[in-house]
Each structure stands twice: as C-alpha cells, then as structure tokens.
Design a protein that fits this description.
The structure holds 2 protein chains of 2 kinds.
Chain A lengths: L9 E6 L3 H26 L5 H30 L2 E5 L2 E8 L3 E8 L3 E7 L3 H6 L1 E8 L4 E8 L1 H16 L4
Chain B lengths: L2 H29 L6 H25 L3
Helix pairs in contact in B: 1-2
The chains are: A alpha+beta, B mainly alpha.
Amino acid sequence: MITLYPNEKILMVVHKHWIAFFSKIIIVAILLMAPAVFLGFISNANGINSETIIYIKFFAINYLMIIILVAFLFWMDHYLDLWIITTERVIDVEQHGLFRRETSEFSVDKVQDITVEVPHMLATFLKYGNLRIQTAGERSFTIKDVPNIYEIKKTIMDQITKRDYVGP
Amino acid sequence: MTFGLAFGIYVVFLAIYWFFVYSILWHLKEYILPMDYSKWVVRGFVFVAIIFNIFSFILLFNLPF
C-alpha cells in the first residue's frame, strides 16, 4: 500500500501506453477464439456423438476460464507497472509476474537529469516513449513505452523548480 | 473414470484457479488508486470468471460417466 506524507499530493499516475499491451491482447484473442473454431469443425464432422460434444464443451469452458485468468494476469502486469508522481517524490512500482514486485522511490530533490527518448516511427505517431531519470545516487530510473512523456517531464521539472525557488 | 475421481480433480483445479484469482485481486487491492477505471476491469473479470465457473459446474454434472 502506498502511503502519502502529510501535505503530499499525487500529481500524476503514469501507466504504460496501450501499445505495450497490444501484442498480448492479440495472443489472448487468438487463444479465446480457438475453442469456437474447434467446436465448429467438430460439430460438422461425422461420427461425433452428443456425449463427446458434452466432454468437449466441458473442457472448452475450463480452457476459457484459464485463458481469461491469463489475460487478467497480463492486464495486472501491465497495470501495476506504474510511476506515481507526487509533489514530494516519484514512486516506481514494477510488477514481475504474479508474486514478484519492486517498489522504489526517489525524492524530486535528487533528480539530476531527465532523458526523454522516442525510439522509433511508431512511437512518434502514437506519441509514446521512454523516460529515464538520473538521480543523485548512482541509480537511474527508467520507464518504457509511456504516453505523454513531455508532460511527465514538465510535471517533474516544475516540482524541482518549485523546491529550488526560495521566496523573498 | 468414476465421477468421484473426476469431481476430486475438478475441485483441485478450482482451488488452484481461485487461489490465482485471489492473488491477483490482492495485488490490485494493494496498489489500486481511488477513482480509477481498473475497478470496472476487475469487476468484469470476476463476473466472467464466476459465470464460466457456474457453466463449467453444470457441465460437470452432465458428463456421462
């Protein structure tokens, strides 16, 4: 559970672009259609009795249950790879499969350099890219395939500017 | 295969299945943010899983042994 400090506000929650999830959607769609295609072939074949059809339907529905679960797992993996940008810090949550996840965070004070990369033509058209933040520690934080990269960069830079500004 | 054995295997399958579903829901509960569309995705998935589970259960009792 992510707990915010007093007076800390969430400015932005950054999820990956849908294109990062697209190839998995295609795989799931093909796997979901497979039993329907198989049942179509089987029901037209000769020598298949109604008892066999019930068995096939039973296994097909259990197969669909598993595919739906796998799809949900893919979605969870996609959804839980996120950055939460607050007024104080950036929280990086990375989900690896079902049982492994990493959560790291750094204060906006520690940001030294923000690199924005639009890696190829598709990324240019669909307006997504990679964002790498170098912090005062030796570690750098990268999030790949995120939309609105310039807006994210501006949000973080604005926070740095606000913190650096010392009023009269 | 007797009905008892098939039923036993089926119950083990469901136990593993719902353990995975529960694990995913636990992860989401930990990191889900308020006012997020993801609640509807979760509800949709759980609804579909329950419906499929009911159909699968009905079909199990219709299997000829």
